[in-house]
Amino acid sequence: MSAELEFYFDFSSPYAYFAATRIDALAARHDRTVRWLPVLLPAIFKVTGNVPSPMVPIKGDYILRDFERTARHHGIAYRKPEHFPILTVTPGRAMTWIAAAHGPAQAAEFARRVFSAYYTAGADIRELVVLSAIAAGLDIAPAALEAGIQSDEVKEAFRLASETALQRGVFGAPFVLADGEPFWGFDRFEQLESHLRGA
Amino acid sequence: MSAELEFYFDFSSPYAYFAATRIDALAARHDRTVRWLPVLLPAIFKVTGNVPSPMVPIKGDYILRDFERTARHHGIAYRKPEHFPILTVTPGRAMTWIAAAHGPAQAAEFARRVFSAYYTAGADIRELVVLSAIAAGLDIAPAALEAGIQSDEVKEAFRLASETALQRGVFGAPFVLADGEPFWGFDRFEQLESHLRGA
């Protein structure tokens, strides 16, 4: 069995970041590969009417604490970014363009570095200068990235990504589809692994 | 260390039921006891503005599937009740009265049996006849239970329970407070156990 895992995420979700640090190794243990698919959660929540957890009174305070504790529990480096939560249109478009122009492997590596820059170094990943520096580390020219982000095709493709995800049943992030079976949340990775073991 | 764990739940939450099947053994492994505290989630959600997961479009379908899968994953008997979700005012009041009249141990055992009747036998636990039968199994007279449920003191005490819980930071269920540290969800029992191990 070699069907790809579909890994949906929004850079603005710390749980998606935790998942991003583990998904490739988890997949590899079961001879699977991962397709990294950025979405924009606010676009999805607009349709479902869901309220982002950090915005719910009382729950919001708990969630911030849970981010820290969950990171510690799993041994993942994490520091709450100064700007949080943020709208991740620009990094989402950047990744969309990189996937089209440089292939999915480069795009996934870009995503890993964006997550890390945001959640370990506190970089403002909405800023073009930050994204350009990350792209440069992957031998992608800043000018090409900037043009890519601003192209209508990329804007439309990233907009469609959230719509397609929603049609596939994705209502939050991280979200993994494995052989059609849906897993929502980093805390379902144990069940995801059970599924892959049994598949 | 022998501080009690505060275990907040609503009979209408399958995740609370899963937690209820494990909380006592988990506590006992660390020489702790459990205080079973029923609340009414809709009263809490009214304050926080949270939307119950089964009511969110798309997410609702996933959650029903996740109940089944999570039960299977942990080897817990579970069958989606015909009436679901329900308003659990009557079983909540019943437990509140039993705790006052017969002590917390009887009340916890009543709660375990109510959960089991609802999630394994599909009994409609809003019905007095169902609650009376469960109480009778604990040598509690149905007439006394019925009078207890209808007393103003019990109604007020159960109403206050959700208010007090909210003041303690409880915004959902299951919710455990261990030495002041909050754990929301059955999927945080691993972190709860880590905490107890380290405390």
List the helices and strands and how they pair.
The structure is a homodimer of 199-residue chains.
Chain A: E1 5-9, H1 14-29, E2 34-38, H2 41-48, H3 59-74, H4 89-102, H5 104-119, H6 128-136, H7 142-150, H8 152-167, E3 175-178, E4 181-184, H9 189-198
Parallel strand pairs in A: 1-2
Antiparallel strand pairs in A: 1-3, 3-4
Helix pairs in contact in A: 1-5, 4-5, 4-7, 4-8, 6-7
- Averaged pLDDT of chain A: 96
Distance between the termini of chain A: 8 Å
The spatial strand order of the largest sheet of chain A comes to: 2-1-3-4
Low-confidence stretches of chain A: none
Short description:
The structure is a homodimer of 199-residue chains. By secondary structure, chain A is of the alpha+beta class.
